[in-house]
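Before relying on records like the one below, remember that each one covers exactly one chain. Contacts with other chains, cofactors or solvent are not represented anywhere in the record.
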Amino acid sequence: MCVGLSAKVVKVSKGTALVDASGARREVSAALLSDLEPGDYVMVHAGAAIAKISGTEDEEADELMEGFLL
């Protein structure tokens, strides 16, 4: 099973993005998304931001993961 995590973009710089996923920050590749800006929400998989998502989708993904992990 492949799982992507939702995260909020904190900073974008030269093909990478610093993202915050429920308080955990990490740098990921932003090469697949050309128009990322701080404040955007993304789905992250295998160290890469693979899609932009809405804030509502971010909340739904967080709720699903919390239920899965309990």
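The longest strand covers residues 5-13.
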